[in-house]
Design goal:
- The protein is an alpha+beta fold.
- The chain has one domain: Roll (Thiol Ester Dehydrase, Chain A), CATH 3.10.129.
- Helices cover 14% and strands 36% of the residues.
- It contains two helices and six strands, in the order ββααββββ.
- The relative contact order is 0.20.
- This is Beta-hydroxyacyl-ACP dehydratase.
- It comes from Streptomyces palmae.
- Keywords: Lyase.
């Protein structure tokens, strides 16, 4: 089965919270490689004085880097738990349980492309254990030892409202 390179076709995240740009590779049940190019136009850089600061002060926020990694994980999780005949409502909503051994490398700056490499270490019916790294070129900028993802039916999590095209 082939999948779109557009993450918005695979996960429910949308602007302004979509923090991955392109799916480079996905093998459901095994691995995914997902890219994100950091832009000075992102909201993190819109605070007064930030754009005028020296470039070394433009480091991508760790929380945003980790969320981008989370969304790369969601690409792998959703392509594993669903096919194009099912959507988020049928497949269940993936929720991050916990991470361990998270390490950040050098800062990521606007104009650089992060490439997230995600692997499934264990898969169970309603949960997965994921691991991975993120790189800018040869530089490792993030390492995640293990992450636990569980899924729950969308109907028990709230309104059940899903963006157009996802149900």
């Amino acid at each position: 089965m082939t999948f779109s390179s557009d993450p918005a076709e695979l996960i429910p995240h949308r602007d302004t919270m979509l923090l991955v740009d392109k799916v480079l590779e996905v093998v459901p049940g095994e691995r995914a490689v997902v890219a994100k190019t950091v832009s000075i136009e992102e909201r993190w850089y819109q605070r007064p004085g930030v754009r005028e600061a020296a470039p070394e002060h433009h480091a991508y926020p760790h929380a945003a880097l980790l969320e981008s990694f989370n969304q790369a994980c969601a690409v792998l999780v959703m392509t594993t738990w669903r096919s194009f005949s099912t959507g988020v409502l049928e497949a269940g909503v993936p929720m991050l349980g916990t991470y361990n051994n998270v390490r950040f490398g050098r800062p990521v700056l606007p104009g650089e492309t992060m490439v997230h490499h995600i692997r499934i270490e264990q898969e169970h019916n309603e949960s997965m254990v994921l691991t991975g790294e993120s790189f800018v070129g040869e530089d490792r900028v993030l390492t995640v030892g293990h992450g636990l993802v569980v899924r729950r039916p969308a109907q028990v999590l709230g309104s059940g409202r899903v963006p157009e095209g996802q149900h």
